[in-house]
Design a protein that fits this description.
By secondary structure, this protein is an alpha/beta fold. The protein is built from twelve helices and 14 strands.
């Protein structure tokens, strides 16, 4: 690392990355370029510019990536109905490849020698950032200060700020004790009382949703329109991908939807407890599965369900830019050609219920499925041979005493 002259830092403007910016300048005697991404975290990103300028940083990138985030990352993932370990909708994991992509692009644009991030050595994000960076720029150098420096506590970080004249934002009121990460898809909470999996989260921790008990006593109905597996309108109003997710977050949160309390298996080997709010994503998943139930062939739908856990694990572990994810995505996107139509959902006190679906590409045939007279559309007598053929191996096994 002795030849480091310029580093691109993923910069939030918060305590950790502000310290990292100054630490990089001092440790490597290098120029620092900051990159701040607006992916819908709900906080102003422009203040990061002033903090970077105060540290003498000349090249400052602040970019609104909300539409790209939902269009090119969230939507492709939801076409796969991806859920990690049965519960986690991958809100943090899916944001990391986009940030990694822009880091290496900015490094190329500015002739930087390395990139840097503020992820710790215990978490998944270090893996996600760096796998993504190496996949897109194989020769890139990565500096991960949390794995090398001795500033291993908040107190040490604050002392470093005082010694180096780094401003630390003083917020009114009590600072949240939780480690939080937010984007347009979700907000996550870790740390403090959540480190004991037996503790119930405090109600005032949740920021995006009312509790199901406090949600309205009257249900909210919404209609989602799909084209090739993506939502393109809500209640007949055409919206961009980011607008869709923002609106679903709003209506979902108002109805107490999307809270999850999970103990998950991190890629680095440990179990971790986290709480998540994903109101829009919860609605998206329910609606998309309803649309597929009407439009996907049975075996294609079952194949997708078999592949989904592998796909979700690839995203969780940081392999968005990998040959296997690209191949799976091609299959998934091919499956969505006829996932077009409308789904009506009922939102009520934390629940998302499907109450109707329709599609010009529906495979549902009422004439065949009816319990009434089907006018010869289905010969029920055919079922006898079907059953006997499928029972043949079972009958032989039973006769041989194998069952």
């Amino acid at each position: 690392m002795s030849d480091i002259n310029k580093v691109v830092l993923a910069y939030s403007g918060g305590l950790d990355t502000s310290v990292i910016a100054k630490w990089l300048q001092q440790t490597y005697d290098c120029e620092v370029v900051t990159f701040t991404a607006d992916i819908g975290q709900g906080e102003e990103v422009e203040p990061a510019r002033l903090k970077a300028e105060a540290m003498g940083i000349k090249e400052i990138y602040i970019e609104d990536l909300r539409e790209e985030f939902v269009r090119d990352y969230v939507n492709p993932m939801f076409r796969a109905n991806a859920v990690y370990e049965g519960e986690y909708l991958l809100g943090t994991a899916i944001a990391r490849p986009l940030i990694a992509k822009r880091l290496v692009e900015i490094a190329a644009e500015t002739n930087a020698d390395a990139i840097s991030h503020g992820a710790t050595g215990k978490g998944n994000d270090q893996v996600r950032f760096e796998l993504g960076a190496y996949a897109l720029s194989p020769g890139i150098k990565v500096i991960a200060p949390w794995r090398t420096w001795d500033l291993t506590s908040r107190e040490k970080l604050l002392t470093y700020c005082a010694d180096n004249n780094i401003s630390v934002e003083k917020k009114r009121g009590t600072k949240s004790p939780y480690s939080m990460d937010a984007n347009l898809l979700h907000i996550s909470y870790e740390g403090d009382i959540l480190e004991d999996p037996g503790n119930e989260p405090e109600e005032d921790m949740w920021l995006w949703s009312v509790s199901p008990e406090a949600a309205p006593d009257v249900a909210t109905y919404i209609e989602l329109e799909y084209e090739r597996g993506d939502i393109v309108s809500i209640d007949g109003e055409k919206m961009s991908p980011a607008q869709v997710l923002a609106e679903l977050n709003r209506v979902g949160g108002a109805n107490g939807i999307g809270r999850a309390d999970i103990v998950e298996n991190r890629y680095v080997g440990m179990k971790a407890r986290g709480c998540y709010e994903t109101p829009g994503g919860t609605i998206m998943l329910k609606g998309h599965r309803a649309m597929e139930s009407l439009t996907l062939d049975r075996e294609l739908a079952h194949l997708k369900d078999e592949l989904m856990p592998r796909y979700a694990t690839l995203i969780y572990n940081g392999y968005w830019f990998s040959p296997e994810r690209y191949a799976l995505q091609t299959l998934i996107d091919e499956s969505q050609k006829f996932v077009n139509g409308k789904v009506r959902l009922k939102l009520y006190k934390g629940n998302v219920m499907v109450v109707g679906r329709e599609s010009q590409h529906s495979l549902f045939d009422e004439g065949v499925a009816t319990f009434e007279d089907d006018a010869g559309a289905y010969n029920q007598g055919d079922a006898e041979g079907f059953i006997k053929l499928n029972a043949l191996r079972l009958r032989i096994a039973a006769e041989k005493g194998r069952l």
